[in-house]
Write a structure and sequence with these properties.
Strand content: 5-15%
Number of helices: 9
Order of helices and strands: EHEHHHHEEHEEHEHEH
Helix content: 25-40%
Length: about 300
């Protein structure tokens, strides 16, 4: 989010009751929003939060933010090392076209509701996710994890918090038209960013007292040479305004504190721009440094 439009914490200090788990401090939630590859900046944020021993009692994530969310929930160590392994699995996962889906898009009469429409062959990505999650479930994690996806048919928010981790991860990253929807139960699910790009509301419903919200706005393109570029530019403007208004609403409506950590990225980051990972980690760490002092005060109750 640009500096001028960034949400920020208020000047007030809230008095929090002890959390339900009896820890004697506010219950802290980490929310990691959507942003595709940009979400790796969240690992830079976690460098700082871990260094300062900021506790995390529950995690909410969607889309690309789900990778960091899972890492936190499973009590992962070495954020830089995990991030590098993640990139190795990510590299090449968006290179192979699904020609069956391409034909269905060109010949829509062949398309039937429920068919797996996605222009990218997702088999390599699925293998990379499965290599990490294995057959583990949400119930096996050290910290409760809630992944937000979108019902393809109705557009409703769907929060996946139980069952196989693989299904929840694969559903929340189903970028529309790029990756096929993923079925969980009887619902075909797509990217959580469509309904809730920064799902602070889920953390509110789960009873968090302090919410650390890591979010990413779309960086507006500087070159608009094609019709497609204009379309992406206009979509980004609308998305960013919705993002800001949604965050402002939750920040005002919540009974406690929502602390925004927004890495400042002045360049576009595509799905294949893995060479930018060191910069993303650094920007995430810098964004966390700007807020960590305030966070420590909140958790200490001062």
């Amino acid at each position: 989010m640009s500096e001028a439009g960034s949400p920020n914490h208020g000047s007030h200090r809230s008095a929090f009751p002890p959390p339900a788990n009896g820890a004697g401090r506010p219950r802290v939630a980490l929310v990691v929003g959507s942003g595709a590859l940009k979400c790796l900046a969240a690992f830079g944020v976690m460098r700082v939060l871990r260094r300062e021993a900021i506790p995390i009692d529950l995690v909410v994530a969607c889309s690309g933010g789900s990778f960091c969310g899972l890492w936190v929930a499973e009590g992962g160590e070495d954020p830089d090392g995990f991030c590098q392994r993640l990139v190795q699995g990510w590299d090449g996962s968006f290179n192979r076209i699904s020609y069956g889906s391409l034909l269905r898009a060109v010949l829509p009469r062949n398309f039937r509701r429920g068919r797996r429409l996605g222009l990218i062959d997702d088999r390599r990505l699925n293998r990379a996710i499965r290599e990490h999650t294995g057959d583990r479930t949400f119930e096996s994690l050290q910290v409760p994890l809630h992944l937000v996806a979108t019902d393809y048919a109705s557009g409703e928010q769907v929060v996946v918090s139980r069952g196989p981790l693989f299904d929840g991860m694969r559903a929340t990253i189903s970028i529309p038209l790029v990756l096929p929807p993923w079925k969980v139960g009887d619902r075909a699910l797509v990217d959580g960013a469509l309904c809730d790009p920064l799902p602070v509301d889920v953390a509110i419903r789960e009873g968090a007292d302090v919410i650390i919200a890591i979010g990413f706005e779309d960086t507006l393109a500087t070159s608009l040479g094609t019709a497609g570029a204009h379309l992406v530019h206009l979509t980004s403007i609308v998305s960013n305004h919705l993002y800001r208004s949604q965050f402002a609403f939750y920040n005002l409506a919540h009974h406690a504190e929502v602390v925004a950590i927004m890495p400042r990225l002045d360049y576009t980051v595509g799905l294949k721009d893995t060479h930018r990972v060191p910069e993303l980690l650094e920007q995430g760490a810098l964004a966390a440094e700007r807020e960590v002092g305030y966070l420590k005060q909140l958790i200490a109750g001062s």
